[in-house]
Each structure stands twice: as structure tokens, then as C-alpha cells.
Hints:
alpha+beta, Alpha-Beta Plaits, four-stranded mixed β-sheet, four-stranded antiparallel β-sheet, 10 strands, about 25% strand
Amino acid sequence: xxxxxxxxxxxxxxxxxxxxxxxxxxxxxxxxxxxxxxxxxxxxxxxxxxxxxxxxxxxxxxxxxxxxxxxxxxxxxxxxxxxxxxxxxxxxxxxxxxxxxxxxxxxxxxxxxxxxxxxxxxxxxxxxxxxxxxxxxxxxxxxxxxxxxxxxxxxxxxxxxxxxxxxxxxxxxxxxxxxxxxxxxxxxxxxxxxxxxxxxxxxxxxxxxxxxxxxxxxxxxxxxxxxxx
Length: 229
């Protein structure tokens, strides 16, 4: 199980929590379900992963790749009826992974993304504080969150500013935009080599050259700018 187990209080409208981004009430199968039933559920729901639940608790998480490993090869001489009969006899418990990695519904999106990256997986079952399966979150949900947070769908100006690692940088930059009467929609810092940082700022900046010059006057350099439409 995941080590993400801290209980947090978060606002109902906070979009950066797993509970706000997951697919709720996911289809599930039991260990005694047939592989054919699991395949049918995935095909019908058009998804690639299924929580395996026994007595109300998560016991595994299977993917379409788990099912494909036991499916007859396209080159098989078995008839369609024989294939279905074979898959109906094979149980989910026979092919499901023993290790299950999950995330709490109270975890942040960043934690879910880190767990996926560290374990090289594309999705996670989401569990409640009592261990019940309440959702599934996938890499697609993480991508959608990234797009929403950055305001990419709305079309924004993106400025990349190279700065030294020192106290007061964000304060200085915020002051520049305030003096120019501009609002910052999002700001992200990325650590670089040699004690440098890149700060990516997005917002509605109609005069890119003008704001870049104001930033330069404060001793900071805009190394890249683009309008995302």
C-alpha cells in the first residue's frame, strides 16, 4: 500500500487533491471473477484498469496488459467459443499482481504524480480512510490538472525568467507585475544547475517586450517568452 496516509483538511473547491480529480465509483471485479468478465468490463467501460475488491477492501489492481498476457494469441487455432471458454475458466486471482500500490483520496495531485513516476505506472486505485475503493486516478487526470492549473486552454503568455537562488526574488517579481497593473495567473519554479532557478510565469501580458524590459531593470533576465493560443 502507499505510504500516503496523512489525514488533511482541504477545501471543497481545491482542485489539486486526488478526490477532486479521480474517476469516482469505478467498476470493480472480485478475485473470483473470470478473466473474460474483467475483459468485458474494461471493454464496455472503455478503461484500462480495474480495482480488485474482496469483502469491501482493495486486494489488487489489474490492467489491460495483465489481461493481454493470458489472452490467446491472434495466431491461435482456437475457435472464438474455445477462447471464451478458456478465459471464463481463468480467474482474476490467477493473474492479478500481488503488490498493490494505492493513494488516499486526501492526497494531493502532486503526491499521486510522484507515486506514479516512482513506480512507473499509469494509474492508481484511490482508497478512503477505512480502506474502501472510492475512485481511480490516472496519468490522463494528472495531465488535465496540469493544463487547468496552468490555464493553457484559455491561452496565456508564458515568460521564463532566470534568477539566482536568493531570498526576495518572488517578492521582487510580484512587485514588477503589480506596478505594471498585471495579474499573475500562475507561477512555477524549476531548479537548474549552478544555483540557478527558472521561474515560469503565466498571465495576460499584452506587451511582452515592455514587461520584459521592466524585469531586466530589476536585474532579472527573461530567457524565453511565448503566447499560447
